[in-house]
Amino acid sequence: MNGALGLIEVLGLTAAMTALDAALKAADVTFLGSEKVIGVGKAISLTLRVEGEVAAVQAAVDAASAAAKDVGTVFSARVIARPDAELKRLWARFQG
Which of 21, 23, 26, 41 sits in a 20 to 30 Å window from 66, CA-based? Predict the structure, then answer.
């Protein structure tokens, strides 16, 4: 992964779909997938992953965060520029 990795964590499916729609419309990024986490109080958060060039991922994450905040809760949003290759292997270990 040469560009960037964008992560957006939101509460609930509606916020996740809204965030993803905004991210994909805002910039030329690729959706890598999502992870579901059942947390405190059995609330379900979803973490969306997108990748692309650094500026595109930043624009996508910013748009996703703003859109999701209009309909729900955004726990975090982060762009990791030029992530280390080990990050991809670590993510695969989390998947089982």
Answer: 41
